[in-house]
Amino acid sequence: MTRATRIVRAAVPVAGEIIDRVVLDHGDRHRRRMAMRGVGGTAFLLDLPEATVLDDGDALVLEDGRLVEVEAAPERLLEIRAPSEHALRRLIWHIGNRHIPAEIGPDAVWIAYDHVLAEMVRGLGGSAEPVERPFRPEGGAYAGGHAHGHAHSHDHGHSHSHAHPHAHE
């Protein structure tokens, strides 16, 4: 099976023939290795050195130099707005406190659709309307612009005991 082993970012001019495109939701745009099929039928194996977030407009480079464009699929989201800038910042804090992916715009925030969070937002004075659009959440503080979703393990040469004076049933 043909492999895609490199990414050309959307901001970089593309040198090569785009032969197909893959339409991926937010979850499927964060990958290292996965069998894929373009909308035109091109089958290939995404085989990157590490898990990477693929952005709308990026191109996957096949072994023979041909390119497959990445398109962000529309997803069911909540568009969150508030009556003032301060109120929106307050809502962003509450959303961030729940550690869920969020896309932050100048006057709105988008999160994956969740009826419980919609009610929370409304209870705090904001609006939360369902929308269908591509989701491009923030990468996070340690992502360097692109979330890479790997654990940071630090071997200390000793174990950490998690013994408790009580039993867990």
How would you portray this structure in words?
By secondary structure, this protein is mostly beta strands. The chain folds into 2 domains: 3-72, Sandwich (HSP40/DNAj peptide-binding domain); 74-134, UreE, C-terminal domain (Alpha-Beta Plaits, 2-Layer Sandwich), CATH 3.30.70.790. Helix content is 12%, strand content 38%. It has helices at 85-96, 115-123; strands spanning 3-8, 18-24, 30-37, 43-53, 59-62, 67-72, 74-81, 103-104, 109-112, 127-134. The strands form 2 sheets. It has a 6-stranded mixed β-sheet with strand order 2-6-5-1-4-3, with no helix packed on it. The longest helix is centred in the middle third of the chain and has 12 residues, at 85-96. 18% of the residues are buried.
Secondary-structure blueprint of this entry?
Layout (H helix, E strand, L loop, with lengths): L2 E6 L9 E7 L5 E8 L5 E11 L5 E4 L4 E6 L1 E8 L3 H12 L6 E2 L4 E4 L2 H9 L3 E8 L35
Parallel strand pairs: 1-4, 2-6
Antiparallel strand pairs: 1-5, 3-4, 5-6, 7-9, 7-10, 8-9
Brief account:
Helices cover 12% and strands 38% of the residues.
Features:
HSP40/DNAj peptide-binding domain; Urease accessory protein UreE; six-stranded mixed β-sheet; UreE_N_sf; 2 domains; chaperone; UreE_C_dom; nickel; mainly beta; disordered C terminus
- The total of beta strands comes to 10
Tally of individual helices: 2
The appropriate CATH architecture of the largest domain is Sandwich
| Helix share bin | 10-25%
**Structural class, from secondary structure content?**
mainly beta
* Top CATH class of the largest domain: Mainly Beta
Q: Globular, elongated, flat, extended or rod-shaped: what is the shape?
A: elongated
Low-confidence stretches: 144-169
Question: SSE order in H/E notation?
Answer: EEEEEEEHEEHE
For the largest beta-sheet, the strand count, sense and barrel status come to: 6 strands, mixed
Q: What is the CA-CA span between the terminal residues?
A: 48 Å
Mean pLDDT, nearest integer? 85
Number of domains: 2
CATH superfamily of the largest domain: Urease metallochaperone UreE, N-terminal domain
Radius of gyration: 20 Å
Strand content: 35-45%
Biased composition (Basic residues): 159-169
Organism: Methylobacterium aerolatum
Region (Disordered): 129-169
Function: Involved in urease metallocenter assembly. Binds nickel. Probably functions as a nickel donor during metallocenter assembly.
